[in-house]
Structures are given as structure tokens and as C-alpha cells.
Specification:
heterodimer, A: 122 residues, alpha+beta, mini-chromosome maintenance (MCM) complex, domain 2, 2 domains, 4-stranded antiparallel β-sheet, 3-stranded antiparallel β-sheet, elongated, B: 163 residues, mainly alpha, Arp2/3 complex 21 kDa subunit ARPC3, 0% strand
Chain lengths: 122, 163
């Protein structure tokens, strides 16, 4: 196999992966709708559901994480994990957006108005 | 197994561990869980081309185990192990086709490492909301894979090794 053909195959593979990125972005990563609630899950179980319309500071998971909601956006104010990636993930308010704290097996997801009514509360 | 080969493999594991440690000291530059440069993959790609696929598997898995033991937090072993296994399978498979260069092999490794990690996270957290991160993780895997692949290609070319 000569070098040029390999290079072409490399570029093809990378192009395919970039295309896959685009498809995944359109399917999962793109967030446009402003959500209405922040849903807290610990190991997949919904443990709390807070309205984005009400300001508040909520300790989660027995205090390992503190979620703050103000002016319709939610963010992780404090966390006891070593990397603090959940705190760096910033403020979220669009349906589908997630804040994850992997060490504490905790996620905060923004969900929409319809899901508030139809959603299954675990 | 020849003594020289064992020594070279041990050195490669040590190199991978040092690279993991260096990386752990660099603060996360993107606030997406799982986004990494994957410096340790330099050693794994190097091993794959210079020592063979079985040796690369051993080196990668021993590296993951030891690094999780030394610097890991809780469940990090599971995330890393899932990423490493998927990444190894993909890299070995892609290399076996003989159609791609080591850069493409490394790209596949980077992407699959991230996919494996997020897959394991979905299993452990028992939720699929993490799929939101998938496009960002695939993209970061491609970028990291290119950089790591170029570095590994230089090492494979420059380092003379007879084992």
C-alpha cells in the first residue's frame, strides 16, 4: 500500500467521523428550546425536580453538590468532587442540556414544559 | 518471552503512566466530562506498531489499572477501562486492514476511548441524558487522535528497536 493511498484513506476516515459528529450534534447536542425545569438524577433515579422560574439554592445528594437556580438558569454552585468539572460546565437553561458530576453519579438535566406533565417521576 | 522484550514493555508501561500523570496535572480546558488529550495513547500506539497487538493490549490495560490505583477517584477505573478496551479493539482492527496510517489508527483510538467512557458512564449513572456530550466527545477524540497519532508516528519512525 503506497503512502498516497493511505493518506486518502486517512482523510476519508476523518471526514466520516466529522460527518458523524455533525449528525450526533443535530440529534443530541443541539439545544434551542428554553426548558422549564431542572431534573436531578442520581444513578438514574430522579430525586428532585426544580422549576427554573423559581430562584433557589438546593443541596443535592446529602450536600455533596449545591445547585443554584436564578433568573431561569441553573448551575452547580458547589461540589465536593476533586475535578469540579460540574461547576465549570456553566449555566444551563435549554432543553436537553446536562450538568454532570461523574464522581457523585449525579446529573442535572433541563427538561421542557410538556415533559413536566407527561414525565415519569421516579 | 525474551528478557529484552519484557524490559521494553515495562518501560513503555512506565512511559504511559508518566504521560497519564502529566496529563492529570493539566487542568481541564473544556468543561465536558471525558475530554482529554490522551497522552498515554502515544505509548499504546507506539507499542502497537513496534511490539505487536498483544503487547499493546497488555501495556494499555496495565497502565489503566495502575494509573487508576495511583491517581484515580472511585469509579474512574471503570470509565478508563471501558474506553481503553474499546479503543484497543478499534485500533487493532483498523491497523489489521492495512489501509490506514498510524494517524488514522490513533484517531479511531481517541474517538472510541471517549465513546467507551461515555457508554460506561451511561451504564453507571443509569441514564442516557449523557448522549448530549457525544458529539463534543467524538470531535475532541478526532482532534486529540490526530495530534497523538502524529507524535506516535514520529516515535515509531525514529526509535530503533529490536526485540
Amino acid at each position: 500500500m503506497d503512502k498516497r493511498k493511505r493518506l486518502r484513506m486517512d482523510i476519508l476516515l476523518i471526514a466520516l467521523l466529522l460527518a458523524a459528529t455533525g449528525v450526533l450534534y443535530l440529534a443530541f447536542g443541539r439545544t434551542v428550546e428554553t426548558g422549564t425545569s431542572a431534573v436531578v438524577r442520581i444513578e438514574g433515579t430522579v430525586v428532585a425536580r426544580y422549576s427554573l422560574l423559581e430562584d433557589g439554592v438546593y443541596p443535592l445528594n446529602g450536600g455533596t453538590n449545591i445547585l443554584e437556580i436564578r433568573d431561569g438558569v441553573a448551575w452547580m454552585r458547589e461540589a465536593d468532587c476533586p475535578d469540579h468539572i460540574c461547576m465549570q460546565q456553566g449555566k444551563i437553561n435549554k432543553t436537553g442540556q446536562v450538568i454532570t458530576c461523574l464522581p457523585n453519579l449525579l446529573t442535572v438535566t433541563i427538561e421542557g414544559g410538556e415533559q413536566l406533565v407527561d414525565g415519569v417521576v421516579g | 518471552m525474551k528478557t529484552k522484550k519484557i524490559t521494553v514493555m515495562a518501560l513503555t508501561v512506565a512511559l504511559a503512566m508518566i504521560l497519564s500523570f502529566v496529563e492529570s496535572q493539566i487542568p481541564a480546558f473544556v468543561a465536558i466530562p471525558g475530554v482529554k488529550m490522551g497522552l498515554a495513547n502515544i505509548a499504546v500506539v507506539f507499542a502497537l506498531y513496534k511490539l505487536g497487538w498483544k503487547e499493546a493490549i497488555l501495556i494499555s490495560l496495565i497502565r489503566v489499572f495502575l494509573v487508576s490505583l495511583l491517581f484515580g477517584t472511585g469509579a474512574s477505573l471503570f470509565y478508563s477501562m471501558a474506553g481503553a478496551v474499546l479503543s484497543l479493539l478499534g485500533m487493532i482492527g483498523l491497523k489489521a486492514t492495512r489501509q490506514f496510517s498510524s494517524v488514522a489508527v490513533s484517531v479511531a483510538g481517541g474517538v472510541l476511548h471517549n465513546v467507551g467512557q461515555i457508554g460506561m458512564a451511561c451504564l453507571l449513572l443509569e441514564t442516557d441524558v449523557l448522549r448530549y456530550y457525544l458529539p463534543f466527545l467524538v470531535l475532541s477524540g478526532i482532534l486529540a487522535g490526530v495530534v497523538i497519532g502524529v507524535i506516535a508516528a514520529v516515535m515509531v519512525k525514529r526509535i530503533r528497536l529490536e526485540v
